[in-house]
Amino acid sequence: MTAAPVIDTVPPRARFQRRVPRWKLRLSAWLPVLTTSVILLSMFIAGQTIFGNFFTSRLISSLFLDNAYLIVLAVGMTYVILTGGIDLSVGAVVAFSGIFGAELLQTGWPAIIVIPAIVLSGSVIGALVGVLVQIFEIQAFIASLAAMFLARGLAYVVSLQSIPITDPAVIWLERTRFQIGGGWFVTPTVIIALVTVLVSVWILQYTRFGRSVYAIGGNEQSARLMGLQVAKTRIAVYIISGTCAGIAGLIFAAYTGSGYSLTGIGMELDAIAAVVIGGTILTGGSGYIIGSLFGVMVYGLIEISITYIGVDSWWTKIVVGGLLLVFVVLQRVLVARPKR
After folding, report:
1. Are 203 and 210 in contact (CB under 8 A)?
2. Are strands 258-259 and 184-186 parallel, antiparallel or unpaired?
3. What is the pTM of this model?
4. Rounded to whole angstroms, how far apart are CA atoms 303 and 293?
5. Half-sphere exposure of 102 (CA within 13 A, CB side)
6. Where are the alpha helices (DSSP H) in the chain?
7. For residue 7, how many other CB atoms are within 10 A of its CB?
8. Which residues pair with 155 in a beta bridge?
9. Cβ atoms within 10 A of the Cβ of 224, count?
């Protein structure tokens, strides 16, 4: 009597992981981030070689100051993209939250109420997108596009003109400089951005919610079979994205000293570009917050480099877009071979 053949029920991915050491798998996951960090360092070296006085503490401090709002936006976008979604509403939310807060301040509301209201306005719109995506099963692209039009329209309803912000508490966020030494400085807005990064790193790497975010992006069906709360996690992810957009609206309003309904046009694309440059895969399940931070730094450094060259502002946008495309393609080429 012949024995029944043994059927290998182990998935191919599990068999691959058995053959490959754990440290190699970790290195493969971090390779996009390492690639971005190498690109960032190369840009600093090239800028120092070409221009001189480029890699300085003042320039790096200014880089963080000028892109603090984009760092926060990229953090929120990273959550969404990790689940395989997209959020096109964040740029319009920045405009609405900023002009909404400026209008409240101008009418005499105290900053202690206005600042939370600015952040909460983004959370509400993010929750709306999450409900549309999860409960009504509308594609994230369409749901966030509708929210983008809604937020932009609300900004127009508040005011078509720029509203100046003169409240001392909001101005303090941007104009206060904490000197660290050696020319280094940070502002409260930069501190807010960096705290957002650190908190998100902890959430995604060391909490059950963070593991659920990665699991949903990797394979939603498997996440459901594992008993993960897919619906709550996805809605929470869009709430986080909207909240980050509200915080970015506050930072940008403090940065410009005003609220304006036309603020943030195309800002959502800047955030997506920074996240992708930072190594997060658009299909979800792979990426790191630190990579998104490096992506924002690369993006900001490109703009600074073009300014140093002295190219016309319209050509600056064209060159920035071309260089971003080159970086993304280069990163994908470098990462694809080790993955195979």
Report:
1. yes
2. unpaired
3. 0.89
4. 16
5. 31
6. 12-19, 22-51, 57-66, 68-82, 90-106, 111-134, 140-158, 168-175, 188-206, 208-218, 220-225, 230-256, 267-277, 289-309, 313-339
7. 6
8. none
9. 14
Closest to 173 (Cα-Cα) out of 157, 147, 192 = 192
- The answer to which of 158-162, 194-198, 277-281 has the lowest mean pLDDT is 277-281
Do you know the residue count of the chain?
340
| Strand pairing class (258-259; 163-164) | antiparallel
DSSP string, 115-165: HHHHHHHHHHHHHHHHHHHHTS---HHHHHHHHHHHHHHHHHHH-SS-EE-
- Tokens 């992006």 -> residue: 217
Among 336, 89, 132, 83, smallest CA distance to 234 is for 83
Q: What is the dihedral of CA 4, 6, 9, 11, to 10 degrees?
A: -150
- The yes/no answer on whether domain 56-339 falls in CATH 2.40.128 is no
Q: Residue 135 corresponds to which tokens in the numbers above?
A: 């409960």
Residue 10 binned pLDDT confidence (cut-offs 50, 70, 90): very low
Percent of the chain with pLDDT over 90: 58
List Cβ neighbours of 64 (8 Å cut-off, separation of 6 or more).
Answer: 71, 186, 190, 193, 194
3-state SS class at 65: helix
Token code pair at residue 24: 């190699």
